[in-house]
Amino acid sequence: MAKPRSEALYAEALQHIVGGVNSPSRSFKAVGGGSPVFMKRGQGAHFWDEDGNRYIDYLAAYGPIILGHAHPHVTEAICRAAENGTLYGTPTELEIQFAKMIKEATPSLDKVRFVNSGTEAVMTTIRVARAYTNRNKIIKFAGCYHGHSDLVLVAAGSGPSTLGIPDSAGIPMSIANEVITVPYNDLEALQAALERWGDDVAAVMVEPIVGNFGMVMPKPGFLEGLCAAARSNGSLVIYDEVITAFRFHYGAAQTFDGIQAPSLSAIQPDLTAIGKIIGGGLPIGGYGGRKHIMEQVAPLGPAYQAGTMAGNPASISAGIACLQALQEPGLYNRLDALTANLAEGLAAAAREHGIALTINRIRGALSTHFCDHPVTNYAEAQDTDGEQFALFFRLMLEQGICLAPSKYEAWFVTAAHTEEDIATTVAAAKRAFAVIAQ
Ligand code: PLP
Fold this sequence. Notes:
- The protein has 438 residues and is α/β, with parallel strands linked by helices.
- The chain has helices at 4-16, 72-83, 93-105, 118-133, 173-176, 187-197, 222-232, 291-294, 313-326, 331-352, 378-382, 386-398, 419-437, and strands spanning 39-43, 46-49, 54-57, 111-115, 137-141, 154-155, 165-166, 179-182, 201-206, 236-241, 271-275, 285-289, 358-362, 365-369, 401-402, 411-412.
- 36% of the residues lie in helices and 15% in strands.
- The longest helix has 22 residues, at 331-352.
- The chain binds pyridoxal-5'-phosphate.
- Pyridoxal-5'-phosphate binds next to α4.
- It catalyses: (S)-4-amino-5-oxopentanoate = 5-aminolevulinate.
- Homodimer.
- Pathway: Porphyrin-containing compound metabolism; protoporphyrin-IX biosynthesis; 5-aminolevulinate from L-glutamyl-tRNA(Glu): step 2/2.
């Protein structure tokens, strides 16, 4: 598949945009480097690059595009919003309509606030938790990505209950010292951290279902234990549902009973951050929680958070249209069935060629880990063959199948994918595994 125009554009982009990309995950650094593909147009489950090559898209823009590209209902809503002016700097009725939709689907949210990105949403939940508890420290889990604010770009220190170290240049030790990182699915480590830092811990932050080192389920009892331990310590529980909200069913993962027993909805967080899908492909984030906690936020309370673009009519209109479209009966079951076929096809193809592959699938999302062991935490996700993944990624791209360029990212099936797309993908994977096995 020739991509001369993508290559030329990348060379030009490098002159003007740092690293040639506006988000580092878009570069091909994690899959051996080279020019990323420059896309020009998307329609349904497919997009086309600047050279006219067509791809089946499993990147889904890292999650938001659950309906597929240019869904007519969402497109119409965006056009209507644009015709009426995209930004007023005043409240609008649309924001109320959208807030009600989000709240109805996620009852732990008594009050919400819309922002512009998942990063902002998470960052603010931390501020609110600190304001509410009058404590400073946060416990989070290794490998869970919570955006790029200082507080969450922190890696584990020398042991699970030790203070963190900056995961990026430019983050002061004094900030990293406010964060403790423990392994996901490890209640003992959490307990040890809580015992050590007790009264200092404002909140425990978790992706209730992980989407950032592959798709990883909480072990049965993990979230229950986490909530009980945090609350008995007087700490709040923050769910980062930026990836998971509206991913598996119409609502956040915290209200989904179809995945695990005891059901996820048996326990509820104090604060939740959301984003991605709820913006229908336009920039958005949101956070919310119990009324008495959310009342910490300005103008009611002392915790300040604001945004010129927050709640803008275009993003809110796209979000409303997206949620309306997601209410189509059977949509999530269709995603589930398509993704089950994809997972089975990939697993059979890998087996046929003797490739060790662990597939974690949760409804319409899956992850492929080149290893022969389960992946239930970040250390296990790291202990997988990155070179094999990089080769697989390139072989798939050459055949018009677009995956995220990182062994840690998920594949997202959209409502626009068809059985034919899945069959084409499995056939391509078979050819890729045959090459890898050589
Ligand atoms: N939280 C989670 C779980 C995410 O996966 C992401 C982004 O991938 C974020 C937060 C940050 O969201 P955004 O990229 O919209 O700032």
